[in-house]
Amino acid sequence: MSNWGLVLVSQARGSIFRRTDGKYFIYLPTRLVEDTAFPLKIGKKATKIWIRFKPGDKKLTIEKG
């Protein structure tokens, strides 16, 4: 909880799915992205990102690109 009584969201359950056209999408929950502490600023247009992983590791790294 922040100093102002707001609950900060630093983690949430999202999902990855494949569309019928073969593209994959990663869904990030609204409450995570709209949290004031979220590290990426998202505008009205698509935000370009880099997604990385290390083989054998079960983590993704997402950075603004």
Strand order in the largest sheet:
1-2
Q: Quick one: overall form?
A: globular
Helix content: under 10%
Percent strand equals: 15-25%
Q: How many domain units?
A: 1
Low-pLDDT segments: none
How many strand units? 4
Largest sheet data? 2 strands, antiparallel
End-to-end Cα distance: 30 Å
What is the number of helical segments per DSSP (H or I, 4+ residues)? 1
Radius of gyration from CA coordinates: 14 Å
Helix/strand structural class:
mainly beta
Can you tag this structure with a few keywords?
mainly beta; globular; 1 helix; two-stranded antiparallel sheet
In short:
This protein is mainly beta. The protein has one helix spanning 30-33; strands at 15-18, 24-27, 49-52, 61-64.
Please, could you describe this protein's structure?
The chain is mainly β and 65 residues long. It has one domain (15-64). 6% of the residues lie in helices and 25% in strands. It has one helix spanning 30-33; strands spanning 15-18, 24-27, 49-52, 61-64. The strands form 2 sheets. It has a two-stranded antiparallel ribbon. A two-stranded antiparallel ribbon has the order 3-4. The protein is globular. The model has no long low-confidence stretch (mean pLDDT 89).
